[in-house]
Write a sequence for this structure.
């Protein structure tokens, strides 16, 4: 049995499930809003919610896509007992998570969030070319028009920043100095790119796509500013073996066996930008005819 941890209406999950059904593989899909009870029946651990139930020993493989397992914790009036039982329930939940993650898996909840700064340091140690970056509270040392700013965290959306309005934080070129200090910000050298590369990694294999975003002013700095009227040209791309080897070393050092990586090609160099363990891959799969959904289903 395959356990899938995802969110409602997540498109990539639905696509992979179609391939699982074609392969006649049994699966359970858990949504992010389910709350589970931990029970035992005849010495077997049972995990049960209002829409799903499974024994731990039934699960042979796990795909962590989004969300996670949420557990209902018992409450106690006595404060001392409450503290003790909270710790007991925590370790029981921890046992379940670690046991599931020890099975055949694609990604883990415990490594689904990565620290961009640590990843960049690790990539540099492994010999990747990295655009120079620094953290600062002002723009005093920033070289205008040759420096960009990006988020430190992986979340680029601002939900409900205004009533019924959400925002998206794009990579931006610093064009003028600020007069005041601000919260610590991530600054990075602006690389004049030939094109961008999106790579999908799964268990030591890479599938890449070149994105020719540099010729469109709208997408030149950040290709996520999609030009729907005139989309960027995208084609399958094969990274040099020495770059793919470094990708494997990096992913294994971070204990991540699946994810999307972004690069910039400039001259003879491949500049590493970032990793997203739960990044989107449907566009890359469809555009390049890689059938990644099928490969995920086959691995599970």
């Amino acid at each position: 049995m395959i356990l899938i941890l995802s969110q409602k209406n997540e498109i990539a999950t639905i696509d992979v499930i179609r391939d699982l059904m074609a392969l006649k593989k049994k699966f359970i899909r858990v949504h992010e809003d389910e709350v589970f009870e931990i029970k035992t029946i005849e010495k077997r651990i049972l995990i049960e919610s209002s829409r799903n139930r499974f024994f731990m020993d039934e699960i042979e493989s796990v795909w962590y896509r989004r969300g996670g397992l949420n557990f209902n914790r018992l409450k106690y009036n006595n404060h001392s007992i409450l503290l003790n039982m909270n710790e007991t329930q925590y370790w029981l939940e921890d046992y379940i998570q670690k046991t599931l993650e020890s099975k055949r898996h694609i990604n883990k909840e415990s490594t689904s969030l990565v620290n961009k700064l640590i990843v960049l340091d690790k990539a540099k140690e492994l010999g990747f070319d990295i655009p120079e970056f620094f953290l600062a509270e002002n723009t005093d040392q920033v070289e205008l028009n040759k420096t960009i700013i990006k988020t430190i965290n992986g979340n680029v959306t601002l939900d409900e920043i205004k009533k019924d309005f959400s925002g998206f934080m794009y990579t931006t070129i610093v064009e003028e100095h600020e007069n005041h200090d601000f919260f610590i910000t991530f600054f990075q050298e602006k690389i004049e790119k030939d094109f961008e590369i999106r790579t999908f990694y799964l268990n030591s294999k890479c599938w890449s796509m070149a994105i020719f975003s540099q010729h469109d002013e709208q997408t030149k700095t950040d290709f996520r500013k999609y030009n729907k009227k005139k989309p960027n040209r995208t084609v399958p791309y094969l990274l040099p073996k020495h770059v793919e080897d470094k990708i494997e070393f990096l992913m294994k050092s971070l204990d991540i066996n699946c994810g999307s990586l972004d690069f910039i090609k400039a001259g003879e160099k491949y500049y590493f930008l970032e990793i997203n363990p739960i990044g989107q891959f449907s566009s890359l799969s469809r555009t390049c005819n890689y059938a990644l959904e099928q490969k995920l289903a086959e691995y599970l």
The mean pLDDT is 89. Helices lie at 11-22, 79-101, 116-125, 241-253, 282-288, 292-299.
